[in-house]
Amino acid sequence: MTTSNKTPPGADPKQLERTGTVREIGSQAVWSLSSCKPGFGVDQLRDDNLETYWQSDGSQPHLVNIQFRRKTTVKTLCIYADYKSDESYTPSKISVRVGNNFHNLQEIRQLELVEPSGWIHVPLTDTHKKPIRTFMIQIAVLANHQNGRDTHMRQIKVYTPVEESSIGKFPRCTTIDFMMYRSIR
């Protein structure tokens, strides 16, 4: 069992993006859930609003499935959880699995969360500390605080490393103004 990496609790993952070393790729994936209450599904999980959330509606484990159309390099998974707001709905044990499809998923991380409040940064690396390449990520909520049945997750972000330019070395664009123009569309 592992805990999340050394990023300070509550650190905003957008700070990672501003460094120019990673970018969020969740919009390139197909998202599905094991269950959800009406109005508390994938749209709320991905809307960049920390006040909305996914709420499961069924028996555990509660699953978030993230499937990519092609094999994708993934460096970090960021999950926002808030024990103060969600109490018994807050996950206390999470499993992160990767694979090509539902039939060959392998667990690469298991996290114990103790009253989390903020962003949880989960590095997705292989045994050589390299980012993983996968078609699918599955987040399984195995247990909640206070033995809660359903779960709340407020946001999930998926990050890939930014590759160096093949044209040559350029300085990283780290300000918001520069980042708007850092790639050719």
UniProtKB/TrEMBL annotation:
Q: Which domain of life is it from?
A: Eukaryota
Has the keyword Cell cycle been applied to this entry? Answer: yes
**Keyword tags:** Cell cycle, Cell division, Mitosis, Ubl conjugation pathway
**What Gene Ontology terms describe where this protein resides (cellular component)?**
anaphase-promoting complex
Q: Which residues form the DOC domain?
A: 1-185
Q: Name one GO biological process term.
A: anaphase-promoting complex-dependent catabolic process
Q: Which residues form a coiled coil?
A: none
State the similarity comment: Belongs to the APC10 family.
- What functional role does this protein have? Component of the anaphase promoting complex/cyclosome (APC/C), a cell cycle-regulated E3 ubiquitin ligase that controls progression through mitosis and the G1 phase of the cell cycle. The APC/C complex acts by mediating ubiquitination and subsequent degradation of target proteins: it mainly mediates the formation of 'Lys-11'-linked polyubiquitin chains and, to a lower extent, the formation of 'Lys-48'- and 'Lys-63'-linked polyubiquitin chains. The APC/C complex catalyzes assembly of branched 'Lys-11'-/'Lys-48'-linked branched ubiquitin chains on target proteins.
Q: How does it assemble?
A: The mammalian APC/C is composed at least of 14 distinct subunits ANAPC1, ANAPC2, CDC27/APC3, ANAPC4, ANAPC5, CDC16/APC6, ANAPC7, CDC23/APC8, ANAPC10, ANAPC11, CDC26/APC12, ANAPC13, ANAPC15 and ANAPC16 that assemble into a complex of at least 19 chains with a combined molecular mass of around 1.2 MDa; APC/C interacts with FZR1 and FBXO5. The C-terminus of APC10 binds to CDC27/APC3. Interacts with PIWIL1; interaction only takes place when PIWIL1 binds piRNA. Interacts with FBXO43; the interaction is direct.
Task: Please give the name of this protein.
Answer: Anaphase-promoting complex subunit 10
Give the species: Orthonyx spaldingii
The gene is Anapc10
